[in-house]
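Morning. Coffee machine broken again, so started the prediction first thing and wrote up yesterday's gels while waiting. Chain of 241 residues, entered below exactly as on the submission form.
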Amino acid sequence: MPIWRDIRDDIRFVLDRDPAAVNPIEVIFLYPGFQARELHRLAHALWRIHIPFLPRALSHLSRFLTGIEIHPGATLHGRCFIDHGMGVVIGETTEIGDGCHLHQGVTLGGTSTQRTKRHPTLGNDVTVGAGAQVIGAVTVGTGAKIGAGSVVVGNVPEYATVVGVPGHVVSFYDPGNETVLRLPDPEHDRLEILEQRVFELESRLTEHEYPAGHDADAAAEDAAPASAPEAPSGAGTPAAN
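Came back before lunch.
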C-alpha cells in the first residue's frame, strides 16, 4: 500500500539525514519528528474529508507527545525530517515540499487573520535552521537554506542561503557544478567601515594629545606612575652605638 511505502521512505530519509540514527526501530520509537510526521498523515487525511474535531484532537495529542505542533490543514508533500523538533510550529496553510529538513524551534507562521493562504510554501530540499521564523505567504525556493535564528518575511530564490533579521540572501549554490557564489554582505562592509573610522579617530586623538615634535621620553614620563619619595638619609639604618 502507498501509505506503508511513504512511511518507509520517511524512515530512510531520517537515517540518511541524521548520522546519530542507528536503525529503523530507534527512528520509529525515539524520534519525535518522525512520530509527529506520521500522526499528521492521519490528521491531514481526516481533515481533507471534513471530519470535525478529531483532526485537531490528533494535532493536540501530537503536540503533547512530541512538542511539535502541525496544524492538520498543513500540506506535507513528501519526506520531511523534523530534527529534534521541540518548539516547531507549522501553520494551517503551510505547504512543504519533498526532502525538507526542519530543526528545533522553527516557526512557519502567518500574519493575516483572513481565511486565505497566509503561511509559507517551501519547495523541495529546503533546510530551515534552528529558531528560524518564516512568516507570511512567502515562497522559499527549491534547495534554499535558512540560517538559524533568521526571520524571513519575503520570497527566497532557489538554492539561496538566507541569514539575518530580517533575512537577506548571502550566497547561492549552483547544483550544476556544485559551487557556492558568495554575495556582498552589506552588514559586514558597514562594520569594516565603522572599525576603520574608530581607528582614524583614535589616531587623531593620539596626535592631539602628543603632537609632532613632542618629546617621546617626556610623554613616557607623563604616562608613568609617580615614583615613591626618596627616603631621608639615615632613615632605616641602625643607630650607632
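The chain has a mean pLDDT of 86. Going to sketch it on the whiteboard this afternoon.
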